[in-house]
Write a structure and sequence with these properties.
By secondary structure, the protein is an all-alpha fold. The protein folds into two domains: about 90 residues, Rna Polymerase Sigma Factor, Chain: A, CATH 1.10.1740; about 70 residues, Winged helix-like DNA-binding domain superfamily/Winged helix DNA-binding domain (Arc Repressor Mutant, subunit A). The protein is about 85% helix and about 0% strand. The chain contains seven helices and no strands. Helix 1 crosses helix 2, helix 5 packs across helix 7 and helix 6 crosses helix 7. The longest helix has about 60 residues. The protein starts with 5 loop residues before the first helix and ends with a helix. This is RNA polymerase sigma-70 factor. Belongs to the sigma-70 factor family. ECF subfamily. Keywords: Sigma factor, Transcription, Transcription regulation.
């Protein structure tokens, strides 16, 4: 099918002539594709842009006879479609980054919570092995933050007795925590190397 000029071709497309639309598509397909691929750097996206542009041309075909310069018109349509695609890609990239960040933060919070609980269990187990007086003095000094003299006054014993009980308690707790923490470190390392 042959049309005398582009204006006649646009009129025929506006009158629902599929052969005229096919000819218009053939004339401008490569220009829209070349423009799109140059900016998007993706053949798949460039093809989608071509399809979207020509779908819009067909949907708005009634206005085609009013267009003075179809080449400029289709170039603007292609540019607008490319911009929409780039905005969508930027939004998707940002969403993926935010989801990954949230996931990583939640994962870290969960891991920190697990490590804290494991460490707390190790400490509680170590404290449970202490004789009652050592455990009481350890709790008062290390967990409640009391000074040795305050503990001595409250328990009605000498500060040197508090100091001796505290030293033995710390040694016992340290030795148990060290043994258990080696096991904990081994578990953590094995989990890291699985990833």
């Amino acid at each position: 099918m042959h049309f005398d000029n582009e204006k006649t071709l646009l009129v025929e497309v506006a009158q629902n002539n599929p052969a005229a639309f096919e000819l218009l598509f053939k004339q401008y397909h490569n220009k829209v594709y070349s423009y799109s691929i140059k900016i998007c750097q993706s053949a798949l996206q460039a093809e989608e842009i071509v399809q979207d542009v020509f779908i819009k041309v067909w949907i708005n075909r009634a206005s085609l006879p009013n267009i003075e310069n179809f080449g400029a018109y289709i170039r603007i349509m292609a540019r607008n479609q490319v911009l929409q695609v780039l905005k969508r890609i930027a939004l998707e990239t940002r969403c993926h980054a935010l989801m990954n960040q949230d996931w990583t933060e939640q994962q870290k919070e969960t891991e920190n919570y697990i490590y804290y609980n494991d460490t707390r269990k190790i400490l509680d187990r170590a404290l449970s092995t202490l004789p009652p007086q050592q455990r009481l003095i350890y709790n008062m000094c290390h967990l409640q933050g009391m000074k040795q003299q305050e503990v001595a006054n409250q328990l009605h014993i000498s500060r040197l007795t508090v100091k001796a009980h505290l030293r033995r308690a710390v040694q016992t707790v340290r030795s148990i925590v060290l043994v258990d923490s080696h096991i904990l470190v081994a578990i953590i390392l094995s989990q890291l190397f699985k990833k």
